[in-house]
Design a protein that fits this description.
The complex is a heterodimer.
Chain A (H helix, E strand, L loop, with lengths): L2 H33 L6 H21 L2 H4 L1 H28 L7 H23 L4 E2 L8 E4 L2 E4 H23 L1 H11 L1 H6 L4 H27 L1 E2 L3 H16 L4 H21 L5 H15 L15
Chain B lengths: L1 H24 L7 H27 L10 H10 L3 H18 L2 H26 L8 H18 L3 H23 L4 H21 L1 H4 L5 E2 L5 E8 L2 E8 L3 H23 L2 H11 L1 H6 L4 H27 L1 E2 L6 H14 L4 H17 L7 H15 L8 H9 L8
Antiparallel strand pairs in B: 1-4, 2-3
Helix pairs in contact in B: 1-2, 4-10, 5-10, 5-13, 5-14, 5-15, 6-7, 6-8, 6-13, 7-13, 10-13, 11-13, 14-15, 14-16
Classes of the chains: A mainly alpha, B mainly alpha.
């Protein structure tokens, strides 16, 4: 394999990984935009989505459903996982965030962190410590061009991720609820005065953000073939780096940031010692926070804030 | 009221069924309803009990008297005796402990005392200065690895390595602290988390220096030197603290020094400056507190205390490896601070013993340890954010006016 096709292969991998990071980062950025708090439990919600995915997919595979109705299977898996995590997200909001909305930021952060530890260990106890294998529904077939290769699974995941992001953009900009969310993010008091139900808006944000994370969880499971109770941690930090890089609170920013973080990681692993790739991501995160805390598309450069 | 509560119960129950069924029911491919029902039963009992308690409380006539919580009652009872007696009694108990405890219990005691030191160190950063540090365990790792490397490569003794470890810990604390000074609480949390992971990954990946995941072993224990007048004249005899009781007394001494140190800091001008920053950074700055330096100092001192604990930890085990310094350890220390009461020294000491010793005593429940820690953290923040034993200053603040603590 010559250098150009190798590079092309890495770009494909970067786009793939980046779109997954983008999806998770969107959850952070939306929640942050509304309540100005990091959702520490987001990584765990992502993992929960992956677990529901494996449970549903395994059940469907045993029924022999996957071979006969492939598209329907995928729809069922993603919808089930996303709706489960949406419910879980609302529950997390109700337990850990809502009672602390008026108290100090430190209390809210600690409460969210406690929730994250609770969920992660709850999943460990209920689903086991070891890896849980995902059924391999995508074969190794794929498209080859210019020496690089993209598998069907990767194509499917990238298309789905883009579709979800487009759907989110449409939701935020074209619907009443999306408008309510943008208004709440800009000025909570004013939004309340104008008759927007703040509680409901926050609940919906906590449904949509985690649901996107759940979709990313299923994608990770489908691609890497296994899920583990603690895999949310590393994805959480990377997605957070993506959200910060893009400018927290900005939806296009989260997408861009995810792609950049994915590219950095893949390129580092391709050309430099891959054991250090996580260190690089953390370093990028710290650098961005230090030099440009508002991010690439953060406040001031764009009007979109949700 | 009952109707409203029942409606709530049904909604919560439905939520719980949705949330618990898939996670608990499908460990493998077959559905196990037993597990779901068991856990669901526990949660529902808690909810029902909550309603019952609420109902009883609403039925009780409000006689206008404010009830004192049980922690206050205990505190008052303890405060009836002069403080010297209480402290002396506790100290005597701590010193006598190895005489009646077996080796296992002494080992648990040592672990508890290490966490007391860590909790008090983190208390400076989180409790006094109000900066949420999620990578605190990194400083512990710095202390442990500094001693290990200095001892293994240069043969430095514990006492010679300790000051170097503290200085290095403080320097790392400043390095981590400096870029985060301008950041808001939640950014800070993530950055410190990232730094903590960087330190662990560096220790894990830098094979030539730290032996990677295999870890370092063969460090000497801390030693005491005493003069001897034997046949060959005056010599210094080295006594290595190898037995568990001697190590216990050693860490007890460190813990007592830490308690004294943190207490002195708390009551000093710097301590008041930290609290001023915690309550309102802008107001503190305007009142002439050099916030940048004071915050850096909080990081440095917190790191210094952790570094001492780390050096002791490595010396005690004479083994260290990067997996001792996972993110979860930071969470445990944070949980100690939260449960004990942010900023409260006795609270943290008690919480360290409760949280570290309890899982050792109830062995069967060990798997549920972290689950409980997470639950405790959230519950404490919602129900009793000032902790089990609130710091006296904080209690006075909270009692002086019934307003909620100011938002930052």
């Amino acid at each position: 394999m010559d250098l150009s096709s190798f590079l092309l292969q890495q770009i494909i991998n970067a786009v793939f990984l980046g779109s997954i990071y983008s999806l998770i980062a969107l959850g952070y950025t939306m929640v942050y935009g509304i309540i100005e708090l990091i959702n520490f439990a987001h990584g765990e919600l992502f993992t929960a989505g992956a677990f529901i995915g494996v449970i549903v997919l395994t059940a469907l595979q045993q029924m022999g459903f996957v071979e006969t109705h492939f598209v329907l299977t995928m729809i069922i898996v993603f919808v089930m996982s996303m709706s489960y995590v949406a419910v879980l997200g609302v529950a997390v909001e109700h337990v850990a965030y809502k009672p602390l909305r008026t108290s100090s930021r430190l209390s809210a952060l600690l409460s969210a962190l406690g929730m994250s530890i609770f969920l992660s260990n709850g999943m460990m106890l209920s689903q086991g410590v070891s890896d849980r294998a995902y059924p391999q529904v995508f074969g190794i077939e794929g498209i080859e061009f210019m020496g690089a290769r993209i598998t069907n699974g990767q194509i499917f995941i990238i298309i789905l991720a883009v579709a979800l992001m487009v759907g989110l953009q449409l939701f935020v900009h074209r619907t009443r609820l999306g408008k309510a969310m943008r208004a709440t993010a800009q000025n909570k008091t004013m939004a309340r005065i104008l008759g927007i139900d703040i509680d409901q808006t926050i609940r919906i944000t906590f449904m949509i953000g985690p649901a996107l994370g759940a979709a990313a969880g299923v994608m990770v499971g489908l691609h890497y073939g296994a899920v583990r109770f603690d895999m949310g941690f590393i994805f959480m930090i990377k997605a957070f780096a993506a959200a910060i890089l893009g400018g927290i609170g900005s939806i296009p920013g989260a997408m861009l940031g995810g792609l950049i973080i994915g590219t950095i990681e893949v390129m580092w692993a391709a050309f430099l010692p891959s054991a250090w790739k996580d260190v690089t991501t953390f370093t990028v995160l710290i650098m961005v926070l230090y030099f440009k805390p508002s991010g690439l598309l953060g406040e001031g450069t764009t009007e979109v804030r949700v | 009221m009952i109707q409203k509560e029942l409606k709530k119960l049904v909604v919560y129950g439905a939520f719980l069924v949705i949330i618990l069924t898939p996670m608990l029911g499908f460990r493998s491919t077959t559905f196990e309803p037993g597990r779901v029902l068991k856990i669901l039963g526990i949660f529902m009992t808690i909810l029902v009990l909550n309603i019952v308690v609420k109902f009883i409380r609403s039925q009780k006539k409000d006689d206008g008297r404010k009830k004192t919580p049980w922690t206050e009652v205990v505190r008052k009872r303890i405060n009836r005796y002069p403080k010297v007696y209480t402290l002396g009694g506790l100290l005597a108990l701590a010193f006598a402990f190895p005489m009646f405890a077996d080796n296992y219990m002494i080992d648990v005691g040592i672990t508890c005392l290490i966490y007391v030191c860590l909790g008090l160190g983190l208390n400076i950063v989180v409790g006094l200065c109000g900066l949420l540090d999620l990578g605190y365990i990194a400083f512990y790792a710095v202390g442990a690895y500094t001693y290990s490397l200095l001892n293994l490569t240069f043969g430095l003794s514990f006492w010679a390595a300790l000051p170097l470890g503290i200085v290095l810990g403080m320097v790392v604390g400043c390095i981590i602290g400096y870029p985060t000074l301008k950041m808001r609480g939640d950014y800070l949390a993530i950055v410190t988390l990232g730094f903590g992971e960087i330190v662990r990954l560096v220790l894990n990946n830098w094979d030539s220096l730290t032996a990677g995941p295999n870890g370092l072993f063969g460090m000497k224990r801390p030693a005491l030197y005493y003069p001897s007048f034997g046949e060959d004249g005056f010599t210094w005899v080295t006594y290595y603290l190898k037995s568990l009781p001697s190590l216990y007394y050693f860490i007890l001494l460190i813990a007592i020094l830490t308690i004294i140190g943190v207490r002195r800091l708390d009551n000093s001008r710097i301590g008041r400056a930290w609290i001023a920053i915690r309550e309102d950074e802008v107001a503190a700055e305007l009142s002439g507190v050099p916030t940048t330096w004071i915050k850096l100092l909080a990081y440095a001192l917190g790191a210094g205390f952790a570094s001492v604990a780390g050096a002791f930890f490595a010396a005690k085990l004479s083994y260290t490896n990067p997996n001792f310094f996972l993110f979860m350890e930071s969470c445990i220390v944070l949980c100690i601070v939260v449960l004990g009461g942010v900023g409260s020294i006795p609270g943290i000491v008690v919480a360290a013993f409760v949280l570290i010793a309890a899982p050792e005593v109830f062995r069967g429940l060990e798997n549920f340890r972290m689950l409980a820690f997470g639950g405790i953290m959230t519950t404490m923040m919602i129900l009793k954010p000032e902790g089990l034993i609130p710091a006296s200053r904080r209690r006075r603040e909270l009692r002086a006016d019934q307003e909620p603590p100011p938002k930052d």
